[in-house]
Amino acid sequence: MTMILKAVARSSGENLTNLRKQGLVPAVVYGSGRTAESFSVAQKDLIKVWKAAGESGTVTLELPTGKVTVLIHELVNDPVKDVPQHVDFLAIDVNKPIEVSVSLEFVGVSPAVKGGLGSLVKSMHEIAVKGLSKDIPHAIEVDLSVLENLDSQILVKDIKLPSGVEATAGADEMVATIAAIQEEKEEVSAIDFSQIEVEKRGKKEEEEAAA
To answer: Which end of the chain is more exposed for a tag (fewer CB within 10 A), N or C?
Structure first.
């Protein structure tokens, strides 16, 4: 589902600190042959849209100049407050394929892990795909139940993609596997008590001689 986000007009000389105090986030949109346009969006609305759309979901941006379909291209957060400080939107042509990275959502339980045969290793947490924006999902599921044995693998070519969407990552790239559990053994040095007794005896004789 395409999210809708309303833009608020702003002048180029407007104080950005004051905007943020008002609960607004400075923003810019560019791409698809359009001139870059600056504006603001409500912080609370942006957070809601970001959680639902991420970087791969389409957003209908309602600008003062009209509606445009965009992707959230870059979101900059305040390092202390962890709230949006600035956002870049990328305008797209809904009739042309786009290339984006989509998050992988791991579901199910691996029989190999459940049976204690090994541990799960995730080599990929998102996958690069290509397709029309309407066909690209917010996340793609990866079923871990197929990992039944030690060294079982899931490759890019094993992932089920929606119709009209293709992976641009290598078909044989690793997504997840089962690895043997490495047991760490502590080396305990053998204690030579006889040597300790000899050293104690020698030290005692030296003390008596000194006395």
So the answer is: C
